[in-house]
């Protein structure tokens, strides 16, 4: 039997398969190199970068919950300069497209980072994070207001010609409103969802289990919410959508593809199993073979109504 | 450093609430260093979601059972049942399928041969010190100071003594050894052996006391830290501690999983190590 | 040792302890009577009622997810007349306050139902559902728009003097905005959260696992989100807040009380263990004893900052 | 009707993928009726979240092992491994702690004594028919028509025969008994015994075919249905099926858990029973 084609094209980025890590769960790629062949995954997505290095939040920063985890890392990152100097050389040698996730603390900073990334040949595309719940100034306000979201996307669009993926927050009343605003402002693709704001309490100490009190919930617990939002967004826009949220097994990824995601990202599952993405890729391939699907495109958006 | 699916060889309660698990681990002994750890997971069981970090207690070989076959290598962990994950672990049996990611992190630096070595372990903190002692006894005199709340918390003494390590026990309730904190013992030893090097692992208040004593006496100290971990490989940034010279402007966060779990004491910011409060520019929610 | 006092007062309703079922998971009370003593729980909360009987949604209506479940029951209920005729007589004999959850398909209907319930002595309080994600007309639009929410609350307030609890939806950008609007319009207490809209797909048939496609996610999976929202709402309003979402064990209920909920509701857990509320009450009592808490009031809102 | 925490007495694979579990259940035999079911859960294991419904296969007493002690009562379920919950169940052992809610729902009405009784069971659908047959054989001739895809799906034949039940087997692939659908056998039997009463349990297409045949011959039929269930007690309204005369204006939803799982065929709306599409006023999302 001929192997099915899993290749997809997102915003002009050619991916050999639709599976990539979710930003912030895969470091800068090299951390996982000992555990899986980085050339087998669809793309590498970096930890969110900012103009200057960022310290992140005080500890504790993570807390396990039922079928999920809360994190309030606070977007700790090495900053754009150190990324280019110390992280990019490693990624250059890997034959897999690199998508750089980034954010700014101000509108200007968003533009600035985009401009700095605009001419790097190693960077296949940008993923604009307007949705991190742990950083207020540079994050959530942009992601929850359609006008602000459109503004930052327009600005970034004007500073870089790279394929532009915009990552949306689920912490909104109607994600399709933001999705459409961002599409109109020039996004080439969307990525949903980021984490959902949550909180957990240590009943003995009566303190929040995160120093930041609230954090972003990720993992299998949120999958039904993510699938619903991806389904809604796919109906609302014409640009491709990358689905993310709680994917652990191949079947989870397939749910997202079936509702119309053109690709998927795997986040928390990397912590559980560093080779999770490989199993997912193999599982998708297997499913295509079993179902007689020759090209993954036939599967994408095949939801029966 | 790899992730491998394997099986439990044995899993026994060695003291009330303390278990010793032997796991089949071909090739592990060649790569694992004293002070390194693994991320452990029960195969096919989703809860708990995240892996659990455990120090490598020791590695070894099973007696070969048939001619020609290479002897089987194993690794051992020692763990205390404290929550959901360790409770599930305590119910595992021979043959149960588990997954091990490791060896991970930076282990102990063995220091100068010949110098007196003082190991300080509180409770389950003895774990990473065993393989360290195995190495150190080859060229130094090794003393182990063991602390714990009660008699039940004092484990593995004979194992260390068999290596030729000199052991001293202190329990808070006096039910075994001397009564009081193990740091009182350390204080005396430091007076006696000013050339010593110290290696410590245990609860944070103990480590802080050890650090103060060693700093006062100008004695080199390495500590093995615990931190909440999601990935174990430096990717999630969940396990950071503050490094020396840390400030908001000049953040010096160190990953416990990758740059630790063993740190030279002077690399850490002891004033803020356990300060959970803090604030950060963007996030004062 | 003296037994701690677990009694709380919500909007003038005296509860012997702060644990009650969540609407829609406990039928009309009698369904669970064989399995737990209804006089041991703080209150009984009925399935959501409407003016006329409601058929509900086509099947399948439920789907299990990881640590949660989706439901799209569609508010099937016997209607106010049959409730009074056939369900209330049973409840009259139980010495536990009855809170009637209700909704309308139109603004007028909300007022009408409230008026019908206004004079029934067996009804201790009303729980106004402006948040069911499965009924569009009569639900979600009211719950996501502060103006509409205030309007329906004012109307209901004018038609009934009963203690009025308003149940909020989590499917909003900022739940405190709705909470404040509803408080101002005359609510005596708030209840958060209702279910979070989600979706699951059967990858073999490529159909949504619910006939209604999307449904409400409940169960342990959503608890961190519910705790966060209750925490936010408690800070934002002065009226008492009832916490609900994913409570299974005593420790879960304690999290809500510590962040400031004056009482809690147990939903999906009733399905898992019909006596779950009793274990939770006992666990709360045990915790108070261990922590030397004489009155549950000392625990409520005791979160350390 | 109660919820009790108990233990597994045995759990054996009786055919490929089919298990029989015996559960300690004091007092259960006195209350359970043919056709009722239980909601089953493994104690302390959260996943799967919801309980699983299983028909009561039979109840019985263990031989008393010491003088004076009353014999221990048990209940048995038979289940097929199909998903997450049943996979976990298949790994249970003697002594494992489980929880049983039941007996639940309405069972079979035994019908008129003396009339021929025809039982139709597809695959695991035999389960609720066993206790029914136990009762029916007391006063009627009982025939059991067993259908399945393959030989492996035909279980418990000897158990039924031991009761004095006349059995007929049909498999779709012909690997056991007659080749084809069991409804072909039913068609012949209905010709032969026009006074019969029929009791059926199995997959929906089979039940629909049985209903058509019985309706055509005017033979009384009771069916036992399966539906997705969350509570099992009539509280969640997740398990409804459409009753005869159902319409949007005049909804006639019946709870499978409470008003079923056994229904007289005429109570159901067969045209829409498996129609999953539908719409409802408020919810056309
Ligand atoms: C590098 C390292 C080495 C360790 N070595 C050992 C060892 O050899 N023996 C041993 O008994 N324990 C060791 N621990 C602690 C051990 O990881 C925890 O006791 C264990 O994770 C608790 O899991 P649980 O599910 O039982 O507890 P829960 O409290 O239910 O766990 C909830 C979450 O908190 C985390 N957690 C809880 N306590 C700790 C802790 N002390 N340190 C880190 N994470 C924690 C868990 O991993 C989990 O994510 C080590 C920790 C680290 C970081
Ligand atoms: C009244 C009644 C009696 C039953 N009696 C038996 C019996 O005696 N033996 C037996 O093997 N099976 C019986 N079933 C079916 C049995 O409940 C399912 O096979 C079982 O729940 C599957 O669980 P799972 O976790 O393995 O499957 P999964 O597919 O992983 O389950 C996912 C969800 O779907 C539900 N589900 C899946 N299949 C069914 C089904 N056929 N009917 C109802 N719910 C389902 C599960 O309960 C769960 O909530 C009965 C069902 C009902 C309603
Ligand atoms: C530890 C951690 C760090 C994260 N950091 C980022 C980040 O820097 N930028 C970003 O856009 N998303 C970040 N996310 C969100 C993930 O990319 C992803 O959207 C989310 O975790 C949901 O997917 P999952 O359920 O598969 O984990 C982070 C998530 C986790 C768990
Ligand atoms: C099957 C089901 C039916 C529900 N019906 C109603 C309802 O009629 N009215 C209402 O306000 N909430 C309803 N809810 C929401 C619950 O009351 C509760 O807010 C939600 O389930 C979260 O709590 P839990 O996680 O403890 O289940 C329903 C929930 C479930 C699972
Ligand atoms: S545990 Fe993830 S970075 Fe250390
Ligand atoms: S299963 Fe809940 S009503 Fe039938």
UniProtKB/TrEMBL annotation, chains A, C:
Q: Does the keyword Oxidoreductase apply?
A: yes
Report the residue ranges that make up the Dihydroorotate dehydrogenase catalytic domain in this protein: 6-286
Query: Which residues of this UniProt protein bind substrate?
Result: 47, 71-75, 129, 194-195
Needed co-factor(s): FMN
GO terms in the biological process aspect are: 'de novo' pyrimidine nucleobase biosynthetic process; 'de novo' UMP biosynthetic process
PROSITE patterns per record: DHODEHASE_1 (PS00911)
Pathway(s) per entry = Pyrimidine metabolism; UMP biosynthesis via de novo pathway
Its keywords, alphabetically, are: Cytoplasm, Flavoprotein, FMN, NAD, Oxidoreductase, Pyrimidine biosynthesis
A GO molecular-function term, please?
Answer: dihydroorotate dehydrogenase activity
Which residues does the Swiss-Prot or TrEMBL record annotate as the active site?
Answer: 132
Q: Which InterPro entries match?
A: Aldolase_TIM, DHO_dehydrogenase, DHOD_1B, Dihydroorotate_DH_1, Dihydroorotate_DH_1_2, Dihydroorotate_DH_cat, Dihydroorotate_DH_CS, Dihydroorotate_DH_I
The answer to whether keyword Cytoplasm applies is: yes
EC number from the UniProt entry: 1.3.-.-
Primary site of residence: cytoplasm
- Annotated localization: Cytoplasm
At the top level, the lineage of the source is Bacteria
Q: How is the co-factor bound, per the entry? A: Binds 1 FMN per subunit.
Q: Which reaction does it catalyse?
A: (S)-dihydroorotate + A = orotate + AH2
- Describe the task this protein carries out: Catalyzes the conversion of dihydroorotate to orotate.
Question: Hey, which family's this protein in?
Answer: Belongs to the dihydroorotate dehydrogenase family. Type 1 subfamily.
Kindly state the subunit structure of this protein.
Heterotetramer of 2 PyrK and 2 PyrD type B subunits.
HAMAP family found in the cross-reference section: DHO_dh_type1
Protein name, UniProt field:
Dihydroorotate dehydrogenase
Q: Which organism is it from?
A: Trichloromonas acetexigens
Q: Which gene encodes it?
A: pyrD
UniProtKB/TrEMBL annotation, chains B, D:
This protein's assembly is summarised as:
Heterotetramer of 2 PyrK and 2 PyrD type B subunits.
- This protein's UniProt keywords: 2Fe-2S, Electron transport, FAD, Flavoprotein, Iron, Iron-sulfur, Metal-binding, Pyrimidine biosynthesis, Transport
Role played: Responsible for channeling the electrons from the oxidation of dihydroorotate from the FMN redox center in the PyrD type B subunit to the ultimate electron acceptor NAD(+).
Q: This protein is called what?
A: Dihydroorotate dehydrogenase B (NAD(+)), electron transfer subunit
Gene that codes for this? Answer: pyrK
Presence of keyword Translocase: no
Q: Which cofactor does it need?
A: FAD; [2Fe-2S] cluster
Gene Ontology annotations of biological process type: 'de novo' UMP biosynthetic process
Domain of life of the organism in this record? Answer: Bacteria
Note accompanying the cofactor annotation? Binds 1 FAD per subunit.
List the pathway annotation.
Pyrimidine metabolism; UMP biosynthesis via de novo pathway; orotate from (S)-dihydroorotate (NAD(+) route): step 1/1
Q: Which Pfam families match?
A: DHODB_Fe-S_bind (PF10418), NAD_binding_1 (PF00175)
Is Electron transport found in the keyword set? yes
Residues in domain FAD-binding FR-type? 1-110
């Amino acid at each position: 039997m001929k192997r099915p084609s899993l290749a997809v094209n997102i915003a002009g980025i050619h991916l050999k398969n639709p599976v990539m890590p979710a930003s912030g769960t895969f470091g800068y790629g090299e951390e996982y190199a000992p555990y899986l062949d980085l050339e087998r995954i669809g793309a590498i997505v970096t930890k969110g970068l900012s103009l200057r290095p960022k310290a992140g939040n005080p500890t504790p920063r993570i807390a396990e919950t039922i079928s999920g985890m809360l994190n309030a890392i606070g977007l700790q990152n090495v900053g754009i300069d150190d990324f280019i100097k110390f992280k990019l050389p490693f990624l250059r040698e890997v034959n897999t497209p690199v998508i750089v996730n980034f954010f700014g603390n101000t509108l200007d900073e968003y533009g600035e980072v985009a401009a700095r990334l605009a001419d790097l040949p190693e960077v296949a595309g940008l993923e604009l994070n307007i949705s991190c719940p742990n950083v207020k100034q540079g994050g959530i306000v942009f992601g929850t207001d359609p006008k602000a979201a459109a503004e930052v996307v327009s600005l970034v669009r004007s500073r870089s010609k790279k394929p532009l993926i915009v990552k949306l927050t689920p912490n909104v009343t109607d994600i399709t409103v933001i999705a459409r605003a961002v599409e109109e402002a020039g996004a080439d693709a969307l990525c949903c969802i980021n984490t959902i704001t949550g909180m957990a309490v240590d009943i003995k100490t009566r303190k929040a289990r995160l120093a930041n009190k609230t954090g972003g919930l990720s993992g299998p617990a949120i999958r039904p919410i993510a699938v619903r939002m991806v389904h809604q967004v796919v109906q609302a826009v014409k640009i491709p959508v990358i689905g993310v949220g709680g994917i652990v097994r191949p079947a989870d990824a397939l749910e997202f593809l079936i509702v119309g995601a053109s690709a998927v990202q795997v986040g928390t599952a990397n912590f559980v199993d560093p080779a999770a993405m490989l199993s997912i890729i193999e599982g998708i391939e297997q499913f295509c073979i079993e179902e007689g699907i020759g090209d993954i495109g036939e599967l994408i958006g095949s939801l029966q109504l | 450093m790899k992730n491998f699916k394997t099986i439990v060889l044995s899993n026994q309660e060695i003291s009330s609430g303390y278990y010793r698990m032997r796991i089949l681990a071909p090739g592990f002994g060649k790569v694992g260093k004293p002070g390194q750890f693994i991320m452990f997971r029960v195969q096919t069981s989703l809860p708990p979601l995240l892996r659990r970090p455990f120090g490598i207690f020791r590695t070894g070989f099973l007696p070969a059972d048939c001619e020609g076959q290479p002897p089987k290598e194993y690794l051992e962990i020692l763990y205390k049942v404290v929550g959901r994950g360790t409770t599930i672990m305590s119910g595992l049996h021979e043959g149960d399928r588990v997954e091990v990611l490791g060896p991970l992190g930076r282990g102990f630096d063995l220091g100068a041969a010949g110098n007196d070595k003082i190991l300080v372990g509180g409770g389950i903190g003895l774990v990473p010190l065993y393989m360290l002692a195995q190495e150190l006894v080859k060229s130094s005199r090794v003393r182990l100071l063991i602390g714990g709340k009660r008699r039940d918390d004092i484990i593995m003494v004979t194992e260390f003594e068999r290596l030729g390590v000199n052991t001293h026990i202190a329990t808070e309730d006096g039910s075994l050894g001397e009564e009081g904190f193990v740091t009182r013992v350390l204080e005396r030893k430091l007076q006696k052996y000013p050339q010593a090097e110290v290696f410590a692992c245990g609860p944070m208040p103990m480590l802080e006391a050890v650090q103060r004593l060693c700093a006062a006496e100008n004695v080199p100290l390495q500590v093995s830290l615990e931190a909440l971990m999601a990935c174990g490989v430096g990717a999630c940034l969940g396990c950071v501690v503050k490094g020396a010279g840390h400030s908001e402007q000049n953040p010096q966060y160190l990953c416990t999983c990758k740059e630790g779990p063993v740190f030279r004491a002077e690399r850490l910011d002891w004033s803020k190590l356990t300060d959970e409060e803090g604030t950060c520019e963007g996030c004062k929610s």
